[in-house]
Amino acid sequence: MADTAASLRLMAWLSPAFPVGAFSYSHGLERAAGDGLVANANGLTDWLQVLLDHGTAWNDALLAAQAWKRATTDGDLVELAELCEAMAGSVERHLETMAQGAAFVKYVAQWTGERTLPDPCPYPVAFGASAGWVGLDLDATVAAFAQGFASNQIQAGIRLSLLGQDAGVRLLHALEPRIVAMADRAALASLDDLGSAALTAEIAAMNHETQHVRLFRS
Known about the structure:
Elements: H1 3-13, H2 29-34, H3 41-54, H4 56-72, H5 77-86, H6 91-112, H7 123-133, H8 138-159, H9 165-188, H10 199-207
Helix pairs in contact: 3-4, 3-8, 3-9, 4-7, 4-8, 4-9, 5-7, 6-7, 7-8, 8-9
């Protein structure tokens, strides 16, 4: 695929105009902010670095890469989708990955045609497999997916008054080398490399289930 068309496709799929509802979810950040675990731009930087290196963002990027590989080799996507769903550590994170996955499957069919994704299908598997089917580059796919996650978290942080627009742009720029390195690592990894050590983030996501006043669904 021509580089320009591939870039447009990735930008379209990760655009706020692509209706997967990502803006509705904070991935537990709302509870972390409420509990004082993330209080400002520096705290959000640390939070995102851990998620990208050792948390759910790493696992999701690896699973997206595995979905890309299976889609391009006629591998078993159903098994991978079941694994991805099982790794959701809380009710709300399960909702987040499955609801976004269902919405993505619905609208990405404009590009993938008659190809069939598992039903139900978590978001990372749906994104990675679709990218593989339409000929997008693996490294670019995983990097864009990870940057989309980081961008959504930064937007959530802005809505939670943890930082402003200027600091948000600086943070997205600062994370770029880390995202590229993580994407390269995920593209070469296997399912044996799945794992998370971001326990505080997992607990915050679980505790959000009991939060009565909220802006986000997770």
